[in-house]
Amino acid sequence: MKYHVYYAKSPDYETGTLRTALEKVFQDQLQNAGGVSGKRIMLKPNLLAWRRKEDIACVHPAVIVETAKLFLDAGASKVAILENPAVQTAPSILHAMGIDEELKKLQVSSANFTDYRRLPVPEQVRFHNLELAAEHLGFDAVVNIAKAKTHAMMTLTLCVKNLFGFVKGSERMGWHLAVGRNFSEFADMLLDLYLTLHPQFNLLDAVVCMEGNGPGSGTPAFRGFLAGSPDALALDASAAERLGVPDLLLLRNAAERGLLPEYENHGEIPDLLPLKRPDPPGILAEWGVTLPPFLKNVMRDFVVSKPKLDADLCVGCGLCVRMCPPHSLKLVNGKPVFDLPNCIRCYCCQEHCPKGAIRPCKTVSMKIAESLEDAIRSLFGTHADQPPKKNGGTV
Ligand code: SF4
Ligand code: SF4
After folding, report:
1. What is the C-alpha separation between 14 and 67, in angstroms, rounded?
2. pLDDT (tens digit, 9 = 90+) per residue, 173-225?
3. Which burial class, exposed, middle or buried, applies to 320 when counting CB atoms under 10 A from its CB (0-12, 13-18, 19+)?
4. Measured in angstroms, how far is the CA atom of residue 313 from the centroid of ligand 1?
5. Pocket flag, ligand 2, residue 347 (CB < 6 Å)
6. Atom of ligand 1 nearest to the CA of 331
7. Which residues are 58's β-sheet partners?
8. Domains and CATH numbers, the chain
9. Pocket perturbation via mutation, ligand 1, pick of 313, 322, 350, 353 by most ligand atoms within 8 A of CB
10. What separation in Å is there between the alpha carbon of 309 and the centre of ligand 1?
11. Residue with CA closest to ligand 2 atom 3
């Protein structure tokens, strides 16, 4: 199948020009989806942090408002915004952006993700222990709205990377640390999110991008376009080329795994204009926190769950050993023994054990972090205004 990637130029974030550009990039997607009349739509914008006016770490506020309006005008019965920002809450970021009142008038609700579960995953995934936000199951479609930014680990963050926001906040640092020494593993985990969540609508805000020290502290880089596609990976492949980073690790891994879709560009295709890349990845962690590698490794043992064996259930068949990608398991006296420093926490062993003898075991510090996260969320009232749920979903 060949996906269409639609481009539209937008010289700024003024309402009129933006709306015209959004209509161009969504026209094809809406037609392919059979319209959204009467449907419930969830917007998942990148709301990393809002620390100053016009903070380019987030999707621009006008893009969020105009996208909500566009879907309401197209007949959606409900539009809600859900996200789990790293530090602030989704409603508090929308308030700081100054768009909460406008969204309220439009009856667009906002909330943090709170309902985390292990969702059914397709066969091709490599990581089997992802606890993901499940609110999207109560909607008919998701609109994945990313900001084009450079990223210390992944070089660029576009639509697929934006799905990392579905991972439970208290586990995100853990995932960075679990696979942070091997960026290829991190890219594979992002591809697993893409395979599992597969949002129907995807939009990239590349009017003002971030270049250099992204994804939180880079500098603005005007590129003046929006891009959209029904497939997040197709959009990323196309946009990465326009932004001068066609050699993304994410795309290379996708190609190796046979996931890279075919696509063709349509609309007002922007000139190829490379973004200034981030400093070479090394000790820069997500959110701009600088950690020496030894500290990363120590922290990893505190914030990443570990596979644990129930020796009574294990029958010593050795399947887990054969399924472990980095060979971090070996049979000793008929029972698997974990080489935890080399374990990437993919949980293929747990997935394949026929006796249910391997389980992820949360560390004490993870449990404390979860309790703290819940306490902070309830303190700031982010459980309010949750969208209605229904069983099953189409996402
Ligand atoms: S797959 Fe399960 S039962 Fe077989 S050796 Fe591993 S832990 Fe034991
Ligand atoms: S032991 Fe191997 S299969 Fe199990 S979680 Fe670790 S790396 Fe994955």
Report:
1. 13
2. 677 666 655 788 889 999 999 999 999 999 999 999 999 877 877 899 999 99
3. buried
4. 8
5. yes
6. 5
7. 47
8. 2-288 (3.40.50), 306-361 (3.30.70.20)
9. 353
10. 9
11. 324
